[in-house]
Amino acid sequence: MRAPFQTVAITRMRDGRRAPDVDRAATEEPLEVRLHARPFAVIMRTPGADRELTAGFLLSERVITCADDLGTIEYCTDPSAEHPENIVNVTLTGRSADSLDRLLETRRQVVTTSACGLCGRQTIESLLCDTPPLRCAWTVTGEVLAGIPDRLRAAQTVFGETGGLHAAGLFSSNGELDGVAEDVGRHNAVDKVIGRMVMRDALPIADRLLFVSGRTSLEIAHKAYFAGIPIVGSVSAPSSLAIEFAEDAGITLLGFVRGGNFNIYAHPDRVAS
User: Fold this and answer.
1) Predicted model pTM
2) Closest to 198 (Cα-Cα) out of 74, 63, 55, 34
């Protein structure tokens, strides 16, 4: 497996002068996900935590709903494959061949880019919640929220090398970091931290909040919902669809969490004054 970043040759411009130099760029490579040896999706991602990424992705796609649905996630062992490190094969449990056929028929065979985590869906209706809104019995204070961006940034080891990776972290109600992942795609980073909990059989993640380093779009709120995460925040803005979805799904949605200030876009009662 390749490193999460690579050294590249560049021309550096400073004060109108150019000079050869080197820099580090975040690695982006395709990960082909196969279900029972049949092509299902291709995810553009940063190598690392591929099994967790796959588990989180399959959860958000409703291929699985819990750890009991997941059999094995193994790298390709086909000697003829050019890049077996970029292919994983998933076996499901409790699923018949007929249900697998129906599952594959409902998806377009497209690449899921690092910018979009929902590209394989055929209709907007397929994104709608099929379970009740999330409930939450705990609150988080503004003081705790104010410290989360710095805690997440401090845990971004590869970002420090490249400046080109997003991060997602799970935090407790008192602001303790419980898991972090980095990737070129925001939604991939979320899938990695959620997938880690899937593989631990720790769903729903009802006692943690999710925080992301970029904007919160629909796919982020969607993934949090199916993982049972009731509070989602980011350093940037949410999209209009993310706000609408969060309101319907029972997610407290926070944006522009910077320097002790933030906006609450849905379900503000879970943030204590």
Assistant:
1) 0.86
2) 55
How high does pLDDT run on average in the chain? 86
Residue 264's DSSP bridge partners are 254
- Whether the predicted pLDDT of 83 surpasses 90: no
Helix, strand, or coil here: 236?
Answer: coil
The CA–CA distances, whole Å, from 261 to 56, 127, 138, 218 equal: 30, 31, 21, 23
CATH class, domain 29-127, is alpha beta
Look up 119 and say whether it is catalytic: no
Q: Where are the domains of the chain?
A: 29-127, 140-272
Neighbours of 208 (CB within 10 A): 25
Q: Which of the listed ranges 121-125, 153-157, 230-234, 269-273 does the model predict with the highest average pLDDT?
A: 230-234
d(CA 255, CA 233): 6
Could you say which of 116, 119, 129, 136 is catalytic? Answer: 116
Under a CB-based contact definition with an 8 Å cutoff, are residues 227 and 192 in contact?
no
What is the topology classification, in CATH, of domain 140-272?
Answer: Cytidine Deaminase; domain 2 (3.40.140)
269 pLDDT band, cuts 50/70/90, is very high
Residue 24's Cβ-side half-sphere holds a number of Cα atoms within 13 Å equal to 12
Supply the Cα-derived Rg of the chain in whole angstroms.
19
Cis-peptide, bond into residue 204, ω within 30° of zero: yes
Give the ranges where 117-264 is alpha helix by DSSP (H).
Answer: 142-154, 157-162, 186-199, 218-227, 240-249
